[in-house]
Design goal:
alpha+beta, 3-stranded antiparallel sheet, two-stranded antiparallel sheet, about 55% helix
């Protein structure tokens, strides 16, 4: 008899726990900064409520909306977001590569201007026009500004 009471108590506890859990059955979906889709029973900023205790889908505002989207459409959206993030990283990598190339070129020009004994410009017919000290200094200042633009102010030149 005591054993039956224990089983009955355990069964009652499990049923009550299930009843309380279903009362808080809201499920939220969100995508992190790396494009990974997460599901949770706790709301987070940017999360969308997809399943409520009544089984209907809701938006983040809490108003009832259409039924929850299918898993396939959620997967497609997640894949689009992952692809978008990968594209953004590829663009950032290409921009960084171009910036590094321009920085290297700007440093090279600046170094040549600093270490050159005499600076000159070449005219239309190929004749050289040697710069005065003031013109040479202005060219060096301009080259350093360009180098700082592409390399940052701590370019180490």
């Amino acid at each position: 008899m005591a054993r039956t009471t224990i089983y009955f108590s355990l069964l009652t506890a499990v049923l009550l726990a299930g009843a309380f859990a279903s009362a808080h059955a809201d499920v939220y979906r969100w995508v992190d900064k790396h494009g990974v889709v997460h599901y949770s029973d706790e709301w987070r900023p940017g999360a969308t409520r997809i399943i409520t205790a009544t089984g209907t889908a809701r938006g983040s505002s809490g108003a009832a909306s259409a039924p929850a989207p299918s898993v396939a459409s959620e997967d497609q959206e997640a894949n689009r977001q992952i692809q978008r993030a990968a594209d953004e990283r590829a663009v950032q990598a290409a921009e960084a590569k171009l910036r590094a190339k321009r920085c290297k070129q700007a440093k090279s020009v600046y170094q040549r201007l600093i270490f050159a004994r005499r600076l000159f410009t070449t005219g239309k017919n190929g004749q050289r026009h040697y710069m005065s000290d003031a013109e040479a200094n202005a060219a060096r200042v301009k080259a350093r500004a360009i180098m700082n633009q592409f390399c940052g102010t701590h370019s180490g030149a």
